[in-house]
Design goal:
Layout (H helix, E strand, L loop, with lengths): L15 H5 L8 E8 L5 H8 L26 H15 L3 E7 L4 H5 L8 E5 L2 E3 L19 H7 L1 E4 L3 H6 L11 E3 H5 L8 E5 L6 E4 L3 E4 H8 L3 E5 L5 H15 L5 H14 L10 E4 L1
Parallel strand pairs: 1-2, 1-3, 3-7, 7-10
Antiparallel strand pairs: 4-5, 5-6, 8-9, 10-11
Helix pairs in contact: 3-9, 9-10
Length: 286
């Protein structure tokens, strides 16, 4: 079907006219996240947080048991963000790389009211539906009063040191826990951002409301003012995600729209014999 038609998904019909008038985009500045250390020591987390004191939550998590395990390193994301950085720099984009312990939650919240035009986040993403039994200590202190609240709290992205809060290690007061929820994102001002790429699993999922649409990461980002969001509907392996992103950025930086760029990248993957599992899960939302 996608070979015959061009699909353009929008969060509201109010922006259809803007979509029709789109004339390309110059990405003058970009922030790239990848090769993140999810098991950063809590003392190092506190040290890194000092430069972002205005954005800390002050939340302290108690130590409790966990039976979900921890989040593993994503070695392929190092090559992914390095390749994208090189492609962007050739086009004159000012690139800010955030890797290992520098890729903390504070650095993302610091974009509040001052977001770069392009943000690329290669990390773990999650969404847990209400019927799933989630025993991570991180969720013990969260409270939701409606289904929509639940979905915004139980979807998010992992940043440096996130395994500490996930497994119940105590985080110093005034230090972010490394787990950025959709609810937290929705409280930021990302209106200066033109494109945010979530190179992570399950970032397009959420609770579906018949009136208001999907509640999850995409809702948080759109509430924050992000213009276009590239996200995924299921888990895609590191290597294939890396390949797709390289093709996507090549098209994007040649002047194509994000929609044209994604479609072209997916068609290339298809031509290489990759099954839809490896490329069809990525979608764009304006």
């Amino acid at each position: 079907m996608a070979e015959l038609y061009d699909f353009h998904e929008v969060s509201t019909t109010a922006i259809i006219n803007e979509v029709k008038q789109y004339a390309g985009m110059d990405y003058l500045n970009a922030a790239l996240y990848g090769d993140i250390n999810y098991s950063e020591d809590v003392d190092l987390m506190a040290e890194k947080a000092k430069g972002y004191s205005l954005y800390t939550s002050g939340e302290v998590l108690a130590t409790r048991s966990l039976n979900r395990g921890t989040w593993d390193l994503l070695p392929g994301t190092k090559e992914e963000v390095e390749n994208i950085s090189e492609m962007l720099r050739v086009k004159g984009t000012n690139v800010h790389m955030l890797t290992q312990n520098d890729a903390n939650e504070e650095s993302f919240k610091a974009f509040d009211a001052n977001a770069p035009a392009l943000i690329h986040i290669a990390t773990h993403g999650f969404y847990f539906p209400p019927e799933e039994d989630v025993t991570s200590s991180f969720f013990n202190g969260l409270h939701s009063y409606t289904q929509k609240d639940y979905s915004m709290l139980y979807s998010g992205l992992l940043f440096a040191g996130g395994n500490n809060a996930w497994t119940g290690n105590e985080i110093d007061e005034g230090v972010e826990d490394g787990i950025l929820t959709a609810d937290e994102i929705s409280r930021l001002d990302l209106s200066a951002n033109k494109l945010i790429v979530l190179s992570a699993c399950n970032t397009g999922l959420g609770d579906i409301d018949n009136v208001d649409g999907v509640f999850g990461l995409q809702r948080g980002l759109k509430r924050a003012g992000a213009k276009t969001v590239l996200m995924s509907l299921w888990k895609v392996p590191d290597k294939e995600t890396n390949d797709l992103m390289r093709m996507f950025y090549k098209e994007l930086l040649n002047g194509n729209t994000p929609q044209q760029s994604l479609k072209s990248a997916q068609k290339q993957m298809m031509a290489e014999g990759k099954t839809p599992y490896y490329w069809a899960g990525f979608i764009l939302l304006d």
